[in-house]
Fold Threonine--tRNA ligase.
Amino acid sequence: MIKITLPDGSVREYEQGVTGHDIAMSISEGLARNVLSVKVNGEVWDSNRPISNDAAVQLLTWNDDEGKSTFWHSSAHLLAEALEELYPGVKFGIGPPIENGFYYDVDLGDKEFGEDDLEKVEQKMLELARNKNEFVRKDVSKADALKYFEEKGDEYKIELIQDLEDGKITFYEQGNFVDLCRGPHVPHTGVIKAIKLMNVAGAYWRGDENRKQLTRIYGVSFPKQKELKEHLERLEEAKKRDHRKLGKELELFTFSEKVGLGLPLWLPKGTILRERLENFMRRAQVKAGYDPVVSPHIGAKELYVTSGHYEKYGEDSFQPIKTPNENEEFLLKPMNCPHHCEIYKHKPRSYKDLPVRYAEFGTVYRYEQSGELHGLTRVRGFTQDDAHIFCRPDQVKEEFIKVIDLVLYVFKALGFKDYTAQVSLRDPENKAKYIGDDALWEKAEREIQEAADEKGLETVTELGEAAFYGPKLDFMVKDALGRKWQLGTIQVDYNLPQRFQLEYTGADNQKHRPVMIHRAPFGSMERFVAVLIEHCGGNFPLWLAPDQMAILPISEKYHEYAQEVFSKLGEKDIRGFVDDRDEKIGRKIRDAEVKKVPFMLIVGEKEQNEGRVSVRRHGQGDLGSMPLAEFVEHFQQASASDFN
RNA sequence: GCCGAGAUAGCUCAGGGGUAGAGCGCUUCCUUGGUAAGGAAGAGGUCGGGGGUUCAAAUCCCCUUCUUGGCUCCA
């Protein structure tokens, strides 16, 4: 007999060789039906795999993330089985579960796989699922594993097996399909009841753009049809919050082919929103001891040769601008830091002057690959809420922490709770991608982690995500459709001060080298606004809303009073418009609601006679009539409470 | 840049070899109104661009530009 400890701490005795399924059966038949896999001493196993020793066991169902992963991983195998039936000779790459579903990378030879094929494959999968084929685990030797896939002619699996250790290789078989796989899997294909293949995409084998591009088929599956339906409805809802859609509907920004791809045009309402954010940041920065600076949009090529940007990105950048006469070349600035370094250098610095903090809403231009452009989140011209802090080495951590405070303040003010703090380090396998010496990199990496730890920030570490001149602390946020974007970023940099020969005179009367901290709490105005739009679904906090109120006269007779209210509110910095169209009040209300205007002020005979306004709040309805002064007070309170 | 999908009126979209359609928006007129769409009339499109097939192309084929879902990249 062996002892099995369940998550609630209870211990039960079972025969040696008991399976997760058996354990579930001993609790209830219903549970046994729902068990997808089982966690044995922290490792996820098939629910039908025998347990031979005492163990801590957790039964995993659809309600556990790991249970879902098992389910989707098995769905990927089912997809592969369907593909093999429909397209004999297909070769397989990898087919993992992902956050919302699964995919399989396949080589279909000459077959052009389009979206029309998805439904056919989907039907085949459902057909195969109904066979309730068991997933059978088999240990195989490396030699046998290689032999199997050599005979099958699947070079991708062979490559994968070659990297595996002999003795630890397993195959899984369901129906006529055999795959290299470490598992685990659901008991049989029959539990997969609802399947939707979402889309096809090209994906490079092993993520290497120099290798063959395989066809990646994305799908999602569920144990119940209803759950699939709900999932698809959630996706539809999320699409309604897409900043590209709302940006158009609310007239915030637009693009023009004639202006150029990836070059956003800010419309008046979007510009107001953006300026309010900028002013908010300016005030916060004044408080935090930053000095504003301004630098031009271009800089001599030599500037970027010095900074290292030219060597690193010159080929993949907008090419230099040439002057008509002299042999001069200028680059559109891709970064503000070289300019700020030169500002730092305009006079000698004493250790007593540091830290110096230069802030600029600097517009930069980067040549992004055309396939990368995406609404406002990935563009070719954008404005960073940039600043560079020049400080002594002993001030780095303190300054870094102050910046973290600023970023957190900004996120809090805007109600961003769902972010990840990511420590972005060098790829240790590929140090040639970065400039600067190891010791300084290590020092910077240590300082970032320490600062984050001191702020009690929960961080994830990503290798290979550093900037080429230094490590970063990035604040990542997801958009409506779950795509991750980097917003705020803080970077410690020992390299640029060296390249620009920045100095200050220390207490010892010797020259010393300052350290630079690059930081942008929003990241860029464009991306930040995009994420903000999706975050609030276009219902901006009152203090940011482009139109804070709409004055809606009942009829033409009250236009004059409406104008009077409008200018009185303007004096109190409450912005909006008078809807003086020849429409009925119901219509005006509807239009203001659709445009997500926070306050609607209805004015007619009663209001005019008594100096009042009838107030309606977006999404809430009629708040009743009140004297204008009372509305101003109500507005100001509402505005302040929107500011977290 | 690569693989897939798409582009028809300002917006959202239908149509699919034989003289371009709807709803909303816009303009004009009627209506002067009380908390989510008042009525009528009208203007508006070389069906993204180029080439080909055809008696005839928005429609079929090829190329191209842009948009889009991914991949790679992201100072």
Observations:
- Chain A has four domains: 2-61, 66-233, 253-294+347-536, 549-643.
- Residues 253-294+347-536 of chain A form a domain with the BirA Bifunctional Protein; domain 2 fold (CATH 3.30.930.10).
